[in-house]
Amino acid sequence: MSTETRDNAFPDHAHGAVSEQRRAHHPQERNDGGAAAFARPSRDGSDRSISLSPEARLAMADQTPLKGGELNAAITSALVGIHTEHLGRGPRSASTFYHGHVLVTLMHDVLTPAEKSLTRNNQSDAVDHIRYLFQKTMEADFREAVERLTGRKVLAFISGNHIDPDIAAEVFILDAPL
Known about the structure:
It is a single chain. This protein is an alpha+beta fold. 39% of the residues lie in helices and 17% in strands. The radius of gyration is 16 Å and the shape is elongated. 30% of the residues are buried.
């Protein structure tokens, strides 16, 4: 896992990456791309439970909205879970931050082995198109997760990928600041 730099333009609560040191002291907080901070039916309609962090369970029980790093971690986990469900693998690392009405999730190393093979064979345009189709397919799930976790309506969703370096950005414009 790479070390991510932090943009000092955002306050400390705006950074959602869970550090290795914090995970060592709080093993219940995961950023391994496998768990999402939500439960919903699987594509085949069967019920599926996904474990929630203690903070997320407490917030749901009290109906207290998540804030700061807890919100960032829950959104990161939810979007990584959706990404993994649709594509069969999650990103190597991901983080979420927000400022005012804007919420951003960055995911690193998201391309599948097939997409990486296409890019090595000068088919980056095909990969861009495939990624666009994937993003359109995941958009409703992404919007629902962000709206549920933030308590805000998503006015606009902007999604993009960069091939080299392999980074995806999911940008949400909300109806009110967080």
